[in-house]
Amino acid sequence: MLKRIPSPTLSDRTTAAIRMVLAGRGGGARAALLFAGPAVMASIAYVDPGNIATNIQAGAHYGYALLWVVLLANAAAMLLQAMSAKLGLVTNRNLAELCRARFPRPIVWFMWVVSEIAAMATDLAEFLGGALGISLLLHVPLLAGMAATGVITYAILALDRAGYRPIELVIGGLIGVIGLCYLAELAIAPPDWWAVTYHSLVPSLPDAGAVMLAVGIIGATVMPHAIYLHSGLTQYRAPARDEAERRRLIGFSNRETVAALSLAGGINAAMVMMAAVVFHHGHARIAEIGTAYHTLVPLLGVGAAWVFLAALIASGISSSAIGTLAGQIVMQGFVGFRIPVWLRRLVTMLPAFVVVALGANVTRCLVLSQVVLSLVLPVPMIALLLLSRRRDVMGEFTASLPVQVLGAGTTLVILGLNAVLVVQTLGISVIGLPSG
Fold this sequence. Notes:
78% helix, globular, Amino acid/polyamine transporter I
């Protein structure tokens, strides 16, 4: 009896097509789409419910004033994600694996612990955001929304059994939904484009609350788990067979990163603009996603409110799934073992259930979780910078001096904002900024 040969999967066909392009057979827009995937999946971390919470507060409280922070954070994200992807393409290892191989053991254990803390803070924001959207849309208790979010995200994660391509397409589709939703919101409530341009280019921090929100925006935009994730997504997808292929892969990766992060940055800016237009004058004290939804109904109509919820649900579900994948990469890389996806999904859900059981303010928890992420962020940033400049790791693909300088400058800016946040939290006055 003849043994049936299984048909190639979608992922197999994608890999074969990529090989043809790398060999010089094929090009154009279709070729670019073949390489699209890792940056698209990493970019969902930049439009998660934590972003929605901080951006709504930023726009409602300060109008367009903090748009420059969104622009700065997005530029930093592009640089760091491109470096992370390059690290995976050059070494065929992810950032966590390289840290375990190259750094002293106590440092590795410290990095793993803080990375797991960041993963829990990440999942808190993502999981609660999706659950809150389902709860508001279907008028069901938040716990029911959490259960539904858990089931849907696990279903998305199960797609990974069929290879990398199905989950890439699903996540890409959900990002498209988020982008279309905020495009619709801007059409319904057009912003003042002159003010948008001015505040995107001229930095300002009106008061101490703006400092905390600025750090929260950075924490919600430049994500620790996304830096680890991107290197893991590129290391196995279509490994280069020689240096020429590696250069072409890096070129495609850089273009995809710029495109995907530009879309994510535009969505973040749109969130702030929508909140500035709708809430800043007359509803400036709005600080909760639920309140924002209920306020949108009388101001812009039920349709605009439903569009807002659709974006929130798509954001929460997709980013929660990606956060779980990133957690697997972090654990396997740092300590050399992994747990079943369902168990990790269960463990990372627990803080969200605790928050709801204690009756804590959901949106406040979302914003605070982003501050935690910003405080943890320098750990993978510094590791990425150190490894990218080492010739024994990167060979001829060592980061250039301008890239090293930009990376170091980005790290210093984030460290500086974090220091200001800590000082303000302790109630100590900072020159030029009122405390409290």
